[in-house]
Write a structure and sequence with these properties.
The chain is of the alpha+beta class and 133 residues long. 17% of the residues lie in helices and 28% in strands. The strands form two sheets. Strands 1, 2, 3, 4, 5 and 9 form a six-stranded mixed β-sheet that branches. The protein has a three-stranded antiparallel β-sheet with strand order 6-7-8.
Amino acid sequence: MTRFSYPVLVADIGGTNVRMALVEAPGAPLVALPGRLTVAFSGFAEAVRSVGAFPKSILACAAGPVVGRSVKLTNAHWTIDGPSIAATLRLEQGLLFNDFEAQALSIPSLRPEWLLPIGEGRAGDGGPRLIHG
């Protein structure tokens, strides 16, 4: 199991918006940070700096294919290079995900009231699960 140094910044990076939240300590609640427009910044590190956050770790999901340790956003000019971001922001750790990969990984933690059953099956019955976007 990977342990992340706190504070941890979590980010959803899309072609239009960058949404971020900070987790100060294990078990602490997510604290939403001001949203940013992707086009307003030359890259992800600049967007993080603009909200005054100083994370030690980042979990970022981005709208584009992850190849190696970087992702080129599908609908924006950014290329997010993990090692470069880590060096620029002086991070101890980080993970970079495709946005749908992050959603799929979240399935076990979804609350029943957030789910929309399709067909006869019920959440938790062992049937297939789907993230739709």
